[in-house]
Every structure is written in C-alpha cells, then in structure tokens.
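Can anyone check this?
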Amino acid sequence: GIPDEIGAYVILKDVLTPLPVEVVNFKTSGLIGAVFTYGIKKAKYEGTVPGKKSSTQLTAPVALVLRCADGTAPTEYQLVPLNIKSDSREFTEAKVGWTGAKAGVNDNAISMKFDKLSRNTYKATLPDLKRGEYGILAPGALASANGASSGKLYTFGVIE
C-alpha cells in the first residue's frame, strides 16, 4: 500500500507499518575542550533519544517507505546508526572547531537508494544493516533545534 500521511514506514509481513516517532533532544558536548585547545579539538552537537531501544525491532533486510512533504526529496532524510548509552541513544549532528563547522550527520549517515512508488512516496530496501539501533532524521531537525526538545527521529532496531 501507499501511505496517506507524511512519515517513515517499514513493510512487515507485507503490511505497511509506521515507524515510531521519538523526540530528539539536542545538546553540545566537548565545548570546554574546544575552547582550551583553541578549536583544534572540535565541540559536538549531539542528538539524544531516551531509552536503550526502539519499540520496533526488525530483521534484515529492512524495506523502508518514505512519504515526503511536497518539495521534500527522500534524500533529505538521513539514516543514522545510534550509539547506545546507559539510558539513551545518541548520534552526532554537527562538529564545530576553529577551522569551521560541519553540520549534518556526515560520515555516520548510511546511504539509501530510493525507488519512486508514487507522488511523494519512495521505497528503499536496506539489506546490509547490522544489528543495532537506527534512526531516520527528518529534514530540518537541526535547523529547528533550540536547546529544548526539538526535532523528530523515526526509530527502529535490527535484530539478527
């Protein structure tokens, strides 16, 4: 089926299932180290999601379907591996140092190739995801970050 609402979905047993949406809290880390090293050591802007794992756990291959807003390309969504901490999952969104800032998930984002299903609806099959937690960062999450809870992440885990 084709989803009616904007969002990220997976196909489970031939049924289109919405991925859970979790709120991302953005924070800075390493700022003092960056100051004392005159920016040689970079400060990080990190996204944090509460909990050790998503409520949706899948087996590979993962069939992902995105329904995008008008004017939004599927490549604006970023698939990121989440690092599991004691009570949360994290990813680095930006790095800032004396040589400048690098925004975006950069080296950690996982490439996805999309096939168009219909207007604003795309499918990607991800056969090589390893065991772990993942999130799909919605477009504009960093731009809307304001120190409080901001941005959303569609989350899932892969179990072997």
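Reply from J.R.: I decoded it. The longest helix spans residues 31-36.
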